[in-house]
Amino acid sequence: MTQNNQLKKFLALISISAFALLLAGCEKKEEDNTNELLLVGLAAAVNMPGDCRIAAGSRTLNTFTTEFTGTSGRISRTGSIPFTTHQTAALKLPGRTAGSSIRLSGGKAFLIAYRADACPVTADQAVTASTTPSVTFTNATSSDSQFRNSYEITTDPATITFPTAGNYFILIYAIPERGQSALLTYGIP
User: Fold this and answer.
1) pLDDT tens-place string over residues 5-30
2) Cβ-based neighbours of 144, under 8 Å, separated by 6 or more
3) Could you tell me if 93 and 153 are in contact, meaning their C-beta atoms sit under 8 angstroms apart?
4) Which of 32, 63, 121, 148 could lock onto 50 through a cystine, CB 3.0 to 4.6 A?
């Protein structure tokens, strides 16, 4: 082999190596961009849409709130739990008087009552069975084993009676695979 041929092979090897490094650098940048997009997508999936943060047991849910006005209405927007088909919604009940009631109909769901003036709603604002006096649920049974401080609608419609005057929130949690829905109709019985 002549010295000229060796030089050509050496230069070709350097050119191929430089080209391979350049491609590897491009792939790396492309991979980094993909990782960034994956992280942004994952963050969007984990971020629950809604306008109110409500603590339910050990979790904090972000969900949409429907404010009770007039004498009846329907939950119009629901939030969703990431990576599931579970639905959430909140019904804001301002200015309830002692002994007033609300009727929820149109399906089954888990319900948690809170005595709170505004969002965010904390777990210690939940009206539990041991709270004195406590809200009364009709056609709903304790489902504390499923969700702490919750009641499940067993017969449509369910009624909730408030023992003391104040502002309340009702968290509605539904698992569609169990035939539940958070899109309930509400009204005064």
Assistant:
1) 444 455 554 555 555 555 555 544 44
2) 129, 150
3) no
4) 63
DSSP-derived 3-state class of residue 36:
helix
pLDDT digits (tens, 9 = 90+) for 161-170: 998 999 999 9
- Burial call 68-87: b when 16+ CB within 10 Å, e when fewer: beeeeeebeebbbbeeeebb
What pLDDT digit, counting tens, does each position of 54-93 carry?
998 888 999 999 999 889 999 988 998 888 899 999 999 9
The C-alpha atoms of residue 83 and residue 43 are separated, in whole angstroms, by 12
How would you classify the pairing of strands 158-161 and 151-153?
Answer: unpaired
8 A C-beta contact, residue 151 and residue 72: no
Helical H runs in the chain?
3-46
